[in-house]
Every structure is written in C-alpha cells, then in structure tokens.
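seq:
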Amino acid sequence: MELNRADIEKIGKMPMNFVAGKERSGTTLLQIMLNGHPHISAPPESRFIMLQYSRYGHIQQWTEQNLRDFINEIYYEGLFKTQWKLDKKELLATLLPVCQYLSYSLLCKSIYYLFAAPGKQITVLFDKNPVYYYFLPKLEQIFPEAKFIHLVRDYRANIVSHRRVFRIKSPADLAYRWMGVNKIIEERKKLSPNKYTLLRYEDLVTNPVKSMKDVCAFIGIEYDAGMNRDHTTSLTTKFAEEKTERFLKVHGSLLQPVNTTHVEEWKDKLSPAETAEAEAIAGNYAEKMYGYKPTQPPIKITSLRMLDIKARYLAIKSLYRFVFKRLSLYYYIKRNVWNDF
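struct:
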C-alpha cells in the first residue's frame, strides 16, 4: 500500500483526539471500545508522539532520511513494536511517496490511520496514553483540533487497582497521586473548556451504551453499536493472545464483557483505616469534583504522618514534572535508562 497526496489531505482533516486520565482508571477499556467503531482508529499505547517531538517536531520539510530515522526510532519502543504490529519496511514504503507533504502532526496521524484494520473507513483518530496528562498543552499545540475525554475513577477503586499491579501500596500516597493527576487535567480544562468532556469509569461500565453515545456526540461522530457489542473483538492480536501472569494481572479483566465487578471492590480490599486515610486526603476534592461520597467523616492524621506522605508525593511529582518538561531528557531516560518510565 502507498499513500498519495489525496490520502494525506484526507488524513490531515481527521481530528486526533485523546483519552486523559490517571493510570488504572479504565483508559484501556475505553480505548478498546472506541476502536470498535468502524470509523475510529484507536491503537494501543505508544508514546512516540511526545517521545519523538523534541527531535522531529520542528522539521518543516521532511526528507527521506528524516523519515527513515523517525521510523527507526519509534520501533525502539516495545509497546509500538509488539502491540501495533505494523511492518517496519511496509510502513516506510507506504510513507515515502508522500514524504514531501508531511508535517510532524500529519506524520503521526498517518501512522495512527495505518494502524486501522483493513476495511475500516477511518474519519477519527484516538490516542490513549495515561502519562500524557503531563503534556496536554503541547498536545493541544501539535493538534489544535484535538478533543480530550477525561476519564476519572473513584480514588479508592483506583488505589486497589494500582496496588494490584504496582509496587506502591500506601493508600495515602496513591490518594495524593490520584488527586494530583486530576488537578492537572482540571487546570487545563479551565483554559480550554470546550475541548474536554468528563466521563466517570463507573458510568462507563454501568451504562456503556449511554456513555459511548455521549462520547460520540462530543467528538462529532455517529454512535455505532459495535462499540458495545463485544469490545474484545477490538483487541489487537498480540493483546488478545497474551496470557502471561503479568498481563493477566494488569489487563485480564479486559478479556471479559464490560461489567461492574471492580466498581465497589475497594469496600472489601481496603481496611477501614486505609479507607479513612485515603478519604482524609482526597475525599473532599473527590466529592466536590466528581460526586464520590466518603463512607465516613475524614479521620485526623498526625502532622508527622501527613508530612511524610506529602513529602514523598511531592518528590515523585517534582521528578516527573522536571523530566516531562524536558522532552530530550525524557527521551534519553525512556530509551536508554528506564524503559517503563
């Protein structure tokens, strides 16, 4: 397959939209459901848009060498290489004929377009990378037409899900992180309110048809029942076949029909003391912003305990913000030091 100038002009008119939300908030489920629409291409995670921006984002006139270098770079990322399943040589051959017409945003859009299964008539593109909440201003700059679905999940359920997968176990620490991420997104919403819509995970799994109709109305596309018929048919081959213990721990529930199993599991998974500690930190904000009601009045936490929790949270927050505001540093760390960063 080769793209021509008419194809590129068509792709350029397609909006690139984003799912924004804290890790373990149902972002992968939403991405898969979006990909069930016959006119939407919503690939699995890959951070190449932001990882490569510092090196290629300002190229005005793309050359064959630029394109070869860019494509070589994106295949260093394991997620892109293993999940997207785009043949490297075919991708280069497809894009080379239109190299002179490319911009950075158009190149990224073209790759998202080419991910789509044969036969799909794509008109809308979607990206899902939870860590992109740090890059919202830059994404708005690269894709001025972009719209963002802010997916939020009850912080107590998010804590349980996070603890199931990652090493951080402190409910207080995780409550701070949940609140910090959503505050970043809310701050951006104030500046570009028409670009954002809120979707609660609990509403998505309780009433998926209404939720996806609302999403489609927001992005300006007609709803299709395929988004809810069986989301597992929209899984990539690699994703659907993966059965390792680690994968099942992280994404095993995605192999089942949409259900409410995890909505209130925190009531059994968190002790009363852990629940109270999380609510003391995030309870007021969660209730005010998203309607998540506390189970009890917040308990008092000693000043020393609160100082310790907040100090650790601020340390990791400062590290991430320092790195993510310096894309060249982020690229170096991601590529050479810490692949999971």
